[in-house]
Amino acid sequence: MMRKIAVYILVLALLLTACSSGGDTVERFAEANPGSGENIAIPGYETLSLAAGKKTQTVYLKNPPENAAAFVMTLALDDGTTLWTGEALQPGEAFTRITLTRTLDAGEYPATLRYDCYSTADNSPLNGAEIKLNLTVHETD
User: Fold this and answer.
1) Top-level CATH class of 26-138?
2) Domain spans of the chain, in order of start
3) What is the rounded average pLDDT for all residues in the chain?
């Protein structure tokens, strides 16, 4: 009985650690093709921090290595303004610098990060995803 309790406590501690590490990343899954049973790991972001008044931004937007899909990501404000569209990102790669189409003033902006997914085998389109997030734009020194 004590061993079961210890296992439950350990599992709970691991879950709490996993939920708090990174702060704003939540792994989601999309089915590659309807009925295929194959999933694509879609990193979700609750917030994305950007610098006010700058087009070039430092970010970390990844394609998990276990995917068999390339991502083309698009970041857009909820008013429909496209801020950035990336090149095809292969599994295991990440964008660390992006250039926005315009600068943003300091503040909070509701936005969507869209994932268009393509097979790494033949570049055929797969299901994608849209992640709602908040852009937190900070003044820089």
Assistant:
1) mainly beta
2) 26-138
3) 81
